């Protein structure tokens, strides 16, 4: 509301300078108030509630200014003062109406922006719901993948264990193979030794076989000689014929040396027999 000092300044200054003096006084005392008598608008954006309160405040200020003008007109009469007050009131009213119109436009813009923000918020909630669904699906997939990873890890661990077991078996198999190769080498060496021994034994057997053949031939000749001697003895004296060869040899060996005598001229039958027997042996 306008105070009485403002009215005094306005009345003392006259019509031409009263408005200017009042505006200067208002700016000096309250820089936030415009020359038209109301607070300057902040260029920063307001929300809907702030703009609504500002519009209501300006409307109240306009009404109070109208009342002040009426009181001034009633207290101080005069053509000059009335014209100045009327012009000031008109300026303030026009400015207030412009301010109100601007604020209403801003309020409409804020309401539209609020509506757009509500729509964007609804869209954001819808996207959030979709993202939540996708997150749930991805979470379930992640859990499934974690289970698969654990399964694969256990499979890999089992495979590593089997690999280690296989490597151990391979090492044992290599050791057995090396031992087998050593045994094979030993067997081959022994086989060569046995073959050499067999060849030596074969040569020895061949020599013994030849010696045995010769001995058989000599034995057979000796048997024939013994048989001839026994036949000669049997003609000279009675000798059993159905006895064994060993018994015949024993009988011949038991005979005395006088039983086998020869004449000097070699005409005895025994000497003839011996000559014939020697001739027979040499022919064989």
From TrEMBL:
UniProt source species: Aegilops tauschii subsp. strangulata
Protein name: Uncharacterized protein
PANTHER family (UniProt xref): MYOSIN HEAVY CHAIN-LIKE PROTEIN
Coiled coil ranges: 48-75, 100-134
UniProt keyword annotations, A-Z: Coiled coil
Top-rank lineage group of the source organism: Eukaryota
């Amino acid at each position: 509301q306008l105070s009485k000092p403002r009215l005094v300044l306005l009345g003392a200054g006259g019509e031409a300078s009263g408005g200017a003096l009042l505006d200067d006084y208002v700016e000096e005392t309250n820089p936030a108030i415009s020359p038209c008598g109301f607070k300057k608008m902040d260029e920063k954006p307001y929300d809907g509630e702030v703009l609504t309160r500002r519009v209501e405040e300006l409307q109240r200020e306009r009404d109070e200014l109208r009342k002040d003008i009426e009181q001034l007109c009633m207290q101080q009469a005069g053509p000059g003062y009335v014209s100045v007050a009327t012009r000031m009131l008109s300026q303030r009213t026009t400015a207030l109406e412009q301010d109100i119109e601007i604020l209403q436009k801003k309020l409409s813009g804020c309401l539209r922006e609020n509506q757009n923000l509500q729509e964007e918020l609804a869209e954001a909630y819808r996207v959030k719901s979709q993202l939540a669904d996708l997150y749930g699906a991805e979470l379930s997939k992640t859990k499934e993948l974690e289970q698969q990873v654990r399964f694969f890890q256990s499979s890999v661990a089992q495979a590593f264990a089997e690999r280690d077991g296989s490597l151990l078996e391979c090492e044992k198999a290599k050791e057995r193979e090396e031992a087998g190769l050593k045994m094979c080498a030993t067997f081959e060496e022994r086989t060569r030794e046995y073959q050499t021994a067999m060849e030596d034994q074969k040569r020895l057997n061949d020599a013994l076989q030849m010696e045995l053949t010769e001995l058989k031939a000599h034995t057979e000749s000796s048997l024939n000689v013994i048989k001839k001697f026994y036949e000669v003895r049997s003609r000279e004296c009675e000798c059993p014929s159905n006895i064994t060869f060993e018994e015949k040899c024993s009988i011949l060996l038991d005979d005395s040396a006088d039983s086998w005598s020869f004449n000097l001229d070699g005409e005895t039958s025994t000497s003839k027999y011996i000559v014939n027997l020697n001739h027979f042996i040499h022919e064989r």
